[in-house]
Every structure is written in C-alpha cells, then in structure tokens.
Amino acid sequence: MTDGTGAAKAVEAAVETAVETAADAAGNWARAGRNAGLAGAAIGVVAAGAAAGVAIERLTVGRGMRRKARLALDASGPFGTLRGTPGTAIAEDGTALYYEVDEPGETAQGPEEGGPGGAAGKGGSGNAATAVKADKSARAGRGGKNVRPVQDGQGGAQGGFRKRLLSALGRRSAAPTVVFCHGYCLSQDSWHFQRAALRGTVRTVHWDQRSHGRSARGHGQMDGTEPVTIDLLGRDLKAVLDTAVPQGPIVLVGHSMGGMTVMALADQFPGFVAERVVGVALVGTSAGRLSEVAFGLPSLGVKAFHRFAPGVLKAMGAQSEIVERGRRATADLFAGLVKRYSFGTPKDVDPAVARFAERLIEATPIDVVAEFFPAFAVHDKTEALVAYDALPALVLAGDRDLITPADHSQTIGELLPAAELVCVEGAGHLVMLERPELVNDHLVTLVERASAGSRSSRSARA
Questions:
Q1: Is 394 helix (H, G, I), strand (E, B) or coil?
Q2: Where are the alpha helices (DSSP H) in 120-228?
Q3: I want to staple 45 with a disulfide (CB 3.0 to 4.6 A). Which of 64, 301, 336, 404 is the partner?
Q4: How far is CA 329 from its chain centroid?
Q5: List of domains in the chain
Q6: What's the pTM value of the predicted model, to 2 decimals?
Q7: Contact, 128 vs 353, CB < 8 A?
Q8: Across the chain, what does the average pLDDT equal?
Q9: What are 439-457's pLDDT values in tens digits?
C-alpha cells in the first residue's frame, strides 16, 4: 500500500490521464467540425467518470503489474473457449455469417465445463462461483407480472440443469433448438455460461452478427450500398435459421442488440415465427426509445451525446488506426468504462470474467462500432412483439443496466402476457456474465415450458 503522498500522486496521475484523453479526443474531433468537438466533450464526461475507479486501482497496483495481470487472465481464463460444429450462412448481400452447433449427446470442442458454475468448476476461478451466486430477490415489476424468486444456489451446477432438461424434454423429436443472438460489440462467446449449461442436452446454435466475432464484415456496409439497420439484422437471423435449423421447433434467445434482432425477425417474418418458434428469451434489451437513455450522464451530457455521438463515431471510424492505438494506450481507462457499463456491481465480479468482457468489446473495431450505432436511435419494434405474445417467454434485465434500462424490459413484459419478467437486483447490462447461474436457471425453465408446449401442439395436431 502506498503512503499518503503516493496515494495523492496516484489520484492526480489518474485524473490527468482522463482529462488528457478527453481533451485530446475533443481536440481531434473538433478539427473535424464544431459539432464533433461538442460530442467529444460529452464523451469525455463518460471517460472522466471512469477516472475515479482507475485512480483507486492505481493506489495499490502498478501499471506493469496490471498489464501482467491482464495477460495472465487472458492465458488462463476458459471463457469463450467452447466450440461446436462450424457452419456458414449467407446473408442477402453475400455476407458470410458464422455459426456453431452443439448437438445433444455430443461433446463440443473446448473445456468440458468452462468455468464458474461447471460441475467441478473445471478451469475456472473459485472466486467466480461465489461472485455469481443466484440473486435472492429477482422481483416482480409493475403490472403484477408473476416473477419466481431465485434463492442462493438454486439451479446448482451444470449437472443439475442437464438433469432437469433431460427429464423435461422427454421424446427427443419434440426438443427445440435453442438459438442464441448476441449483443452490440460482443460475439457468440458472450453466452459462454449458458452454452456450458445446455450443452449435451439440447441442440443449440450460436452465431456471430455481421461484422462481429468470426462473421465477415458486412458487404453492404463495406461498399457503402446499405447502412446497418435492425431490420437487416433480423433478415440475417432468418438466413442463419434457414441454414442451421431447417426444421423443428425453435427457442430464440437474444441479448441487447440480439434481442432487437429477434424482434426484427418477428416484424418481417411473422408467419415463420408462428410456425416454428415455441419460446423466446429477451435479455437486457429494448423495443425502442433508446434515444432517451441517459447512460448515467447528467442531463446536459445526455443531450450532447445523443445529438453528436453518431457523427463523432463516424469520424473516429474514418481514422480507425489512430483510434485503435489510442484505445490500447489507455487500456486502464477502457477497462474502467467496460466495468461501469457492463456490470451492476463491478467489485463483486470475478476479475477473469471482467477481463473476458473487456476482450469481447475491445475486439470490435471502432469502424464497426460506428456503423451500427445509428441503428439504435431509430429502432422501434414495439408492435412486432405481438408475434410472441402467446409463447412461453422470458424477459430478464439487471436493475442497474445503464445501456438498456430495466424499465425497457418492463415495457416488453407488459406486452407479452405469457412472459416471466425478472429484474435482477444489483446486475448490469451483461447480466448473463454477471449472474450466470440465475440466468441459466430461468433459461432452463423457459426451455422446459417451450418443450411442453411443443409436445402439446404436436399432440393436438395429431
């Protein structure tokens, strides 16, 4: 531990870093135009907000040690290592969309359990098992939705989830394929814990959205012929489903942008949804009004951010090499931002999980960030939700989510009569990484409900 003088210097250095970073960004963007400079200042507010966390870390840990710790976590963490049978679907503009399939009874490539929540925590950190205990009080929101509380440890290890599913699925012919759709600046690996919980018991498909993960850069965006829209992502999902799940019932699971993709599928292909989809999970997502989200900023900063951020990001995307170097040079500040906007209780998150989230986000190039960002301001799929209103559904969000606030999930839940609405106290945007056992428990329950409904439907038709 440093003495008082050392502590003061550490705080001063952290603040200087934040201020210099924000000032440099604002200065560079200002050269591209006055509006960009104002947006740079607004984004600088966010950066400065992370400085306090960085300063505290620097009181006790040196930069070199932090760098070594990141490398050690990258080398030892099992997160994102689960692999299945690869495949490729081709989008309407020729973009290659990468997916993987885990079949029932098969052992996919990669560690057997994959970290916290596994049967023996194989390859994982002991701290993680403690950090991700199921929340005691997932609570009902307004409107009297029936929310089942989850007690400490409920759901247990992966073996418990598998026994429940095997018992519920009964005849394999009625078992649905569970398709996972990831969020903005993430990849299919963000579902690591859910994949580990379901593998071997039910068929699952995990895919990377265009320009994310292992999928190709969007052709329409690279040649400038088509901007990214949520509708386009919905059509991408349809291409994946047509290729990877040509027959049989489907349960759709979407987080954040992935949830919006699931809504866009319903908006454009309601007949397909009515015929094939037997359940849906919408995690930390929104049906619209994203232009009103405050991101934890003061009111002045919010207005400036929403007004100018698209232009700033576009300017940054045009100078991606310079920006990427800047991101690497300010790794500590970037890590602080990731923690603030990913987790509701960052100090309780396993460091390996936090680093995993950081790696997922930093792997998304700034020009891709810029391409996708404008789509959220005009996203509105409230009316499309009617396609899922008769299905078993799970709507789940963290009550400290700064990206897609919990009241957005409340709105979705009120429009889906058959939905289980869960608000996870103390959790943030990446709730499936922050509270995996709780999310797994509710997801397994959804698959059980969807499987029962699928069997009943088949019996009725027979």
A1: strand
A2: 126-131, 158-169, 192-198, 219-222
A3: 301
A4: 25
A5: 4-61+292-375 (no CATH), 85-288+379-461 (3.40.50.1820)
A6: 0.73
A7: yes
A8: 75
A9: 999 999 999 999 987 655 5
Biggest CA–CA distance in the chain, Å, is 79
pLDDT in tens, 263-287: 999 999 999 999 999 999 999 999 9
Side-chain-side CA neighbours of residue 378 (13 Å): 10
Tell me the DSSP string of 13-58: HHHHHHHHHHHHHHHHHHTT-HHHHHHHHHHHHHHHHHHHHHHHHH
Q: Which pLDDT tens digit goes with each residue over 243-267?
A: 999 999 999 999 999 999 999 999 9
Closest-CA residue to 426 (of 346, 306, 307): 346
The secondary structure element, H or E, covering residue 419 is strand 419-424
- Return the structure tokens found at 95: 């973009």
Check residues 32 and 240 and name the one with the higher pLDDT.
240
The residue type of 216 is A
Q: Is 138 left (phi over 0), alpha (psi -120 to 50) or beta?
A: beta
- Per-residue model confidence as pLDDT tens digits over 59-95: 444 555 445 555 555 555 678 889 999 999 999 999 9
- Three-point CA angle 119, 123, 125, nearest 5°: 90
Tokens of 161: 């989830």
- Rounded CA-CA distance 449/455 in Å is 10
List, in order, residues 6 or more apart from 275 with CB less than 8 Å away. none
CA dist., res. 345 & res. 143, Å (int): 27
Classify burial at 239, counting beta carbons within 10 Å of its beta carbon; exposed 0-12, middle 13-18, buried 19 or more.
middle
